């Protein structure tokens, strides 16, 4: 059999994403007795208490029933919260699924999307394995370059993806900058603003893109319950847009992909008024600690908004990953983000932050040397 | 007959009556792709041997011949199905004896002599077949005379070069670096430009406004100067091989070298390659970017022996894995895994008298310009020991100075080969993580077969 003849050219070149093994397997292979997972920007406090109760009390008998196919109550609740129509929301099995919905809805052969070269990888991945060109614009000073992005648009560009704040650099566009950009696009194509980490941002000039939907009908906003709300394991995220745009995206949306526990846990998570301030306080304090300690070790740091910090090591990040794993600390190596020799550390508990600093210090015995 | 992209194919039957059709197809395709008579003759000669050999081992079965234009080379693939076919015949050495059968098999040897690369492919993805590669003849060797090498750039940007810049870059490399840093086969400016055009090779160069460093105080040039560059290619499933960085700038050597490394890694980071490696690193390889894998002793006839340090870097996070090893190889693996901090669980296995297939199959990849032959086991069999010895004998007689054997630790049955290799002059030289189904141990023939009595069982 010549399988290669059956495989489209763009799939042949594509790299499959291999998720990490379960903790128990990793600890066995790396010979460590405990593991701090600081690679996925998860909330160290976990989900809000009300969401925990939902999970505890979920009747097993309901597992045999399909959930709401379009997350009905969630859409009602979000409509109230943001002053939008419930049909302006679409839910997915994590926001990653929403990325695929949008690309499938608007792109056809020969089209392209525009995003940054050093940002959340899934926009680029989904475009490429769907057979569309991903035009990657270099960051400027670790931030999305608005002028260069506008300059890379052509007649076949259908979607622009902006990660705000950017994962992994933590930079963000202010409301003024985002509006200026949307004005320049002038409704010619879809602009996606991914706000996966918006709840972590406390800066006053940071925009709430939900409030811009009325003025910019070509705007699509992504949000997730995986980060601030600590529900990453349940996989639930959504997009919001104008009724016209969402009605088109709905055609490519997979229904019933969000399970019942996720819908109910997310519904009550939004009502917890203490969860966000509590998480923000932890992230603020531990990020400060991490940045100070990195400076003490002589490590260059890129720390912006969000629950993560980047560090530049004068050694291969993939080697640093292995060495840190053998010390029970799991970080994200950044070669895959096109930041060779950088690592990204998710903000965790103080114990975890002390462990990561100790581990980095020990793999760089001569300061920040290789 | 079909034509798509840069390739053209012919479906025929493995019957000697169709030999003229097959030869005419390969020869005329090579010419149609713009190659010269010399290349076409070589491909025709090799094709004749391959086709006749296939007529013997898979008579009357269908065969597809593909000829593809690699710009700097032409590739011919002879694909056939595995039905009613004895895989033993895939062995390059199958029945090389003075009798009638031996003459039939000798065809593969003749075919290999006619081209630059020859190998047997087998696998679910690519199917079973013989592959011939003949490179274009380039007469315009880079100038040997020293030229405007050291430069001083005010600033620089790193980009993919156009043809004119590639040729200028190659000339500068040839003037500034010996063959141990830049292989002889790349020392043709037009060839490297064609290699880049083919998509098989990639280059990055650092250019900027600068001046020639000598004579001192030269005037600033209006045009662009090349401060350095780097070249890479894909090898097999998971490896990126790179060359350089070659640095001509005297003021910003470190910055240019690091910039080239960053851009290079940025370009390959999201491919499905698992690692980047080189045995052609220069002294400007930036510190901290790469790990050392070990050395390989590389012999070039008439040019002595050179010790090649291998540098390596994973492109993805290592998730850890299990590997299979013969007990005799475990100490080597332990030391390598400890050195590289690679999480591996070593499972041992060896042959303990259980039933095996009668015949093993080894595939060989010939690289005549580098005087190198690389063996890989495709199937296990009771005759594995004899088969390895026979291959080494034939390859040594053919004058190959470097004979390697790749053992894939992701395939448990390959453990059975270890003892034979160790007893017949091979020694483990390198460990290439994730280069196959699992990690690959590269064994190198240290002692020629005549150097000691060979164990055959």
Question: Would you mind describing this structure in some detail?
Answer:
The complex is a heterodimer of chains A (370) and B (457). With 370 residues, chain A is of the alpha/beta class. Chain A folds into two domains: 3-47 and 274-363, Aspartate Aminotransferase, domain 1; 49-269, Type I PLP-dependent aspartate aminotransferase-like (Major domain) (Aspartate Aminotransferase, domain 2), CATH 3.40.640. Chain A is 35% helix and 15% strand. Chain A has helices at residues 9-12, 23-30, 49-57, 72-82, 95-106, 122-129, 146-151, 175-185, 243-249, 260-269, 275-296, 317-325, 350-363, and strands at 36-37, 89-92, 112-116, 133-137, 157-163, 190-194, 219-224, 237-241, 300-302, 308-312, 329-330, 332-333, 342-346. Chain A has a seven-stranded mixed β-sheet, sandwiched between helices. In chain A, a hairpin with an 8-residue loop joins strand 12 (332-333) and strand 13 (342-346). The radius of gyration of chain A is 21 Å and the shape is globular. By secondary structure, chain B is of the alpha+beta class. Chain B has three domains: 1-137, 2-Layer Sandwich (Heat Shock Protein 90); 151-314, 3-Layer(aba) Sandwich (Aminopeptidase); 320-457, 3-Layer(aba) Sandwich (Aminopeptidase), CATH 3.40.630. Chain B contains nine helices and 21 strands. Chain B has helices at residues 19-32, 37-57, 100-114, 163-176, 189-198, 253-268, 330-340, 384-397, 416-423; strands spanning 2-4, 7-13, 62-69, 73-80, 117-121, 128-135, 151-153, 157-159, 201-212, 224-235, 239-247, 275-281, 291-300, 304-314, 321-325, 344-348, 361-367, 372-379, 402-408, 426-432, 440-445. In chain B, strand 1 and strand 2 form a beta hairpin.
């Amino acid at each position: 059999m010549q399988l290669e003849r059956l495989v489209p050219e763009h799939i042949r070149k594509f790299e499959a994403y291999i998720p990490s093994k379960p903790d128990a397997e990793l600890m066995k292979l790396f010979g460590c007795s405990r593991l701090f997972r600081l690679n996925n920007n998860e909330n160290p406090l976990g989900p809000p208490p009300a969401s925990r109760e939902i999970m505890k009390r979920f009747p097993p008998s309901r597992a045999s029933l399909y959930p709401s196919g379009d997350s009905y109550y969630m859409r009602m609740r979000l409509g109230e919260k943001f002053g939008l129509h419930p049909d302006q929301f679409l839910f997915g099995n994590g926001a990653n699924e929403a990325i695929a919905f949008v690309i499938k809805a608007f792109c056809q052969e020969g089209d392209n999307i525009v995003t940054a070269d050093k940002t959340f990888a899934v926009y680029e991945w989904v475009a490429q394995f769907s057979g569309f060109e991903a035009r990657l614009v270099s960051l400027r000073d670790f931030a999305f370059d608005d002028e260069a992005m506008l300059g890379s648009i052509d007649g076949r560009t259908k979607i622009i993806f902006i990660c705000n704040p950017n994962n992994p650099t933590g930079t963000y566009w202010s409301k003024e900058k985002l509006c200026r950009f949307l004005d320049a696009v002038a409704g010619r194509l879809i602009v996606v603003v991914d706000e996966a980490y918006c709840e972590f941002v406390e800066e006053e000039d940071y925009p709430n893109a939900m409030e811009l939907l009325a003025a910019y009908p070509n705007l699509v906003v992504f949000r997730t319950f995986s980060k601030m709300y600590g529900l990453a394991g349940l996989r639930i995220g959504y997009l919001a847009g104008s009724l016209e745009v969402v009605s088109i995206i709905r055609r490519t949306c997979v229904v019933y992909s969000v399970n019942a526990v996720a819908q109910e846990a997310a519904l009550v998570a939004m009502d917890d008024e203490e969860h966000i301030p509590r998480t923000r306080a932890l992230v603020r304090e531990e990020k400060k600690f991490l940045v100070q300690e990195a400076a003490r070790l002589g490590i260059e740091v890129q720390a912006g908004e969000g629950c993560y910090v980047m560090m530049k090591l004068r050694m291969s990040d993939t080697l640093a990953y292995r060495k840190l794993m053998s010390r029970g600390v799991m970080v994200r190596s950044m070669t895959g983000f096109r930041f060779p020799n950088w690592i990204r550390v998710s903000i965790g508990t103080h114990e975890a932050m002390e462990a990561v600093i100790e581990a980095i210090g020990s793999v760089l015995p001569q300061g920040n040397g290789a | 007959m079909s034509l798509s992209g840069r390739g053209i194919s012919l479906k025929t039957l493995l019957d000697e009556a169709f030999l003229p059709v097959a030869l005419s197809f390969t020869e005329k395709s090579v010419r149609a792709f713009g190659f010269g008579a010399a290349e076409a003759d070589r491909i025709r000669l090799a094709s004749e041997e391959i086709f006749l050999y296939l007529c013997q081992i898979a008579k009357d079965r269908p065969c597809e011949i593909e000829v593809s234009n690699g710009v700097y080379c032409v590739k011919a693939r002879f694909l056939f199905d595995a039905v009613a076919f004895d895989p033993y015949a895939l062995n390059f050495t199958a029945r090389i004896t003075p009798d009638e059968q031996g003459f039939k098999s000798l065809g593969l040897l003749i075919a290999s002599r006619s081209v630059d690369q020859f190998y047997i492919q087998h696998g679910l993805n690519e199917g079973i077949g013989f592959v011939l590669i003949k490179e274009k003849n380039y007469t315009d060797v880079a100038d040997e005379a020293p030229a405007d090498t050291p430069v001083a750039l005010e600033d620089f940007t790193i980009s993919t070069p156009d043809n004119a810049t590639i040729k200028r870059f190659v000339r500068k490399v040839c003037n500034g670096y010996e063959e141990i840093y830049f292989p002889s086969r790349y020392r043709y400016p037009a060839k490297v430009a064609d290699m880049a055009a083919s998509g098989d090779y990639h280059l990055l160069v650092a250019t900027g406004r600068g001046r020639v460093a000598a004579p001192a105080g030269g005037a600033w040039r209006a045009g662009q100067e090349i401060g350095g560059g780097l070249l890479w290619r894909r090898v097999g499933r998971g490896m990126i091989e790179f060359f350089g960085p070659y640095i001509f700038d005297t003021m910003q050597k470190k910055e240019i070298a690091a910039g080239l490394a960053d851009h290079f890694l940025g370009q390959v980071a999201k491919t499905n390659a698992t690692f980047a490696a080189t045995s052609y690193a220069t002294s400007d390889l930036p510190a901290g970017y790469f790990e050392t894998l070990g050395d390989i002793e590389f012999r070039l006839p008439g040019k002595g022996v050179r010790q090649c340090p291998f540098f390596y870097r994973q492109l993805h996070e290592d998730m850890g894995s299990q590997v299979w090893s013969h007990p005799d190889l475990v100490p080597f693996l332990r030391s390598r895994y400890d050195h590289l901090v690679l999480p591996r669980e070593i499972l041992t296995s060896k042959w303990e008298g259980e039933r095996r297939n009668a015949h093993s199959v080894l595939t060989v990849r010939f690289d005549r310009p580098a005087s190198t032959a690389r063996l890989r086991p495709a199937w296990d069999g009771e005759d594995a020991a004899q088969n390895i010895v026979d291959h080494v004998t034939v390859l040594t007689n053919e004058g190959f100075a470097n004979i390697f054997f790749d053992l894939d630790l992701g395939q448990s049955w390959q453990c059975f080969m270890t003892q034979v290799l160790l007893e017949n002059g091979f020694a483990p030289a390198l460990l290439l993580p994730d280069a196959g189904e699992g990690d690959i141990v590269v064994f190198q023939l240290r002692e020629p077969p005549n150097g000691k009595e060979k164990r055959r069982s």
